[in-house]
Amino acid sequence: MQKIQVKPGAKLNDYKAYGSLYSLVLNFLEQTKDAIASIEGKTIWMINSTAIGGGVAEMLPSQMRILRELGVSIEWLVIEAKEDAFFDLTKRIHNAIHGSGDGKFTEADREVYEAVNKQNLTKALELINDGDIVVVHDPQPMPLAAMIKKIKKVPIIWRCHIGLEEDTEVTDSVWKFLSLYTDDYDHFIFSLPAYVPKSLKSKTSIIPPAIDPLSHKNRALQLHKSIGILYQSGITDDHEAILYHRYNHLVRRILPDGSFGPPNQTSKLNLIYRPFVTEISRWDRLKGFKELMDAFIKMKKDNLKHGDPESLEYKRIKMTLLVMGGPDPAFVSDDPEGQEVLRELTEAYQELDRDMQNDIAILLLPLDNPKENALIVNALQRASSIIVQNSIQEGFGLTATEGMWKRKPLLVSAAAGLKFQVEHRKTGLINEDPTDIESLSKALAYMLNHPKERDKWGFNGQSRVIQNFTLFSQLISWLEVFAKVKE
Ligand code: UDP
């Protein structure tokens, strides 16, 4: 178990100074006064399984900074595991909660699951005091609650960031496997009402995930910084950008032979200011990268075959690049599937002809360096014409909210979380089936060729985020739960 230090960042006054957030902050301060007073003297312990990558690691630092500024004591612990079998199992649990995999869990699985959590217990017990409040995130540390409660008198909350709308045999079976641990929790938090398993409905709150508008990933970026980052990513070859070689070697871009290298030293791509569409996610099959790439290729081929080379529509589609970004697998320890998914993508890329290769950039981002990673994601999203999240399943796609905050139109699948975040034809397009290459390619082409709608949808998206999905709305709900469960 490791205690994670949180670096300084934006303060409440910085948010107030950001025009459209001013009243949001005042409302937050007013609504949370009583709850904050009621947990005085207690420490909130957040426990998850990774300090980098993924939604939990993304949001915790900002939430912790704001709460600390208001005098709340809050700490972050990450469980450690050396056994590959543990992360294999937790990945299978993760997939099963999303309804995929065979849903089979054995007693041997349970042994690994509990043994790893037990190894992390001693440190947790040294730190946590009676009366504190513990929050366990996602399935990986789930067995800890029973172990902690044997020794400490603390309320424990389970925060589940994933879920599936409908019950299936696979989801039933994984909830059965986990049911041994749920009894020890005092309260549950899910992202959407539809994700709550029947057995947990009575003690549950709903908190949709949110973004920090002033984090490195979301704050306004200076133009020169953006260009420098895009240059480094092989998205532009504006030679001015070479001045900003601070970003050199941070991103690796796919090369025609399927290897990855610093893009502008090894390939001359002639890519000055081409429009592009972006999906940034973990290399997970459920993120629908391969389907997106196929749809993009289909759009390009259809355009060449049927488009009128003199038309604006033809030129727009011809110019457009696809950017797919995800973590350099070298830095992600809890995602054994990632390497395989990336290999499938790079193999498909290698098969393409050179023209098509030049239209697609697969980028490996430096997740080991959270600040630089965040700035790169920020620049890529800001410079995109469209943000795509083509997930087969998605509990709640933070990337969609990040895109909307940046006034970008979204193209998403009808995965439950995304359907809740994006309003069809108001903040983007919902393409019902992420594996339907034909309809996805049409949706892409439609959005590329309707810039006015894109602008309008982007504007609507930003307002929607301010009203519903910032860390302030989220913290109001968290504090209500803390006040409710405290002993
Ligand atoms: N992300 C990132 N770098 C990457 C891939 C993803 O910073 O290479 C971020 C992304 O911007 C988002 C988070 O990781 O903030 C992923 O959250 P999301 O809810 O989209 O998916 P999850 O990983 O939680 O399934």
What does this structure look like?
- It is a single chain.
- This protein has 487 residues and is an alpha/beta fold.
- Residues 239-248 and 265-272 have low confidence and may be disordered.
- α11 (289-306) packs across α18.
- It folds into two domains: 2-210 and 470-484, Glycogen Phosphorylase B (Rossmann fold); 223-468, Rossmann fold (3-Layer(aba) Sandwich).
- The protein is globular and about 75 Å long.
- Helix content is 46%, strand content 13%.
- The two termini are 25 Å apart.
- The strands form two sheets. It has an eight-stranded mixed sheet with strand order 9-8-12-11-10-13-14-15, sandwiched between helices. A seven-stranded mixed sheet has the order 1-3-2-4-5-6-7, sandwiched between helices.
- It has helices spanning 12-16, 22-38, 54-69, 84-97, 107-119, 121-127, 144-151, 169-182, 223-232, 263-266, 289-306, 312-319, 337-350, 354-358, 370-383, 398-405, 416-421, 437-448, 451-468, 471-485; strands at 2-3, 43-48, 73-78, 133-137, 156-159, 187-190, 204-206, 252-254, 260-261, 276-280, 321-327, 360-365, 386-389, 410-413, 428-431.
- Uridine-5'-diphosphate binds at residues 54-55, 58, 280-282, 325-327, 365, 367, 373, 377, 396-399, 402.
- Belongs to the glycosyltransferase group 1 family. Glycosyltransferase 4 subfamily.
- This is Trehalose synthase.
- It comes from Flagellimonas meridianipacifica.
